[in-house]
Amino acid sequence: MSAIPNCPKCSSEYTYEDGVMFVCPECAHEWNAQSEAENNDDVKVIKDSNGNILQDGDTVSVIKDLKVKGSSSVIKIGTKVKGIRLVDGDHDIDCKIDGFGAMKLKSEFVKKI
């Protein structure tokens, strides 16, 4: 008989098996033990518009004019951004742009230099 694992979300020991899924009655989290093990090994890779892998500290260039939300300014195509930081979220690049200050950009609108 196989041991049923604790809930990966809340660490509850009251999990139970429902078909191929495990269920936690305390937080209602459902997971497949096989896919959960595979997901733990995955590391999120952030790529630019050309498919190059980005890393902290890279220099990138903007590939299209970007409107700045809450302002009438525009970040022009070809603007260089030095020393990027990768973060989790919708806008996955945190950076400082000369003349604009701190910004968050989406990786799909930049290319690695």
Automatic annotation (TrEMBL):
Residues 4-32 form the Protein YjdM N-terminal domain. InterPro entries: YjdM, YjdM_C, YjdM_N. Pfam families: YjdM (PF03831), Zn_Ribbon_YjdM (PF08274). Residues 46-112 form the Protein YjdM C-terminal domain. NCBIfam families: phnA. Belongs to the YjdM family. This is Protein YjdM. It comes from Priestia taiwanensis.
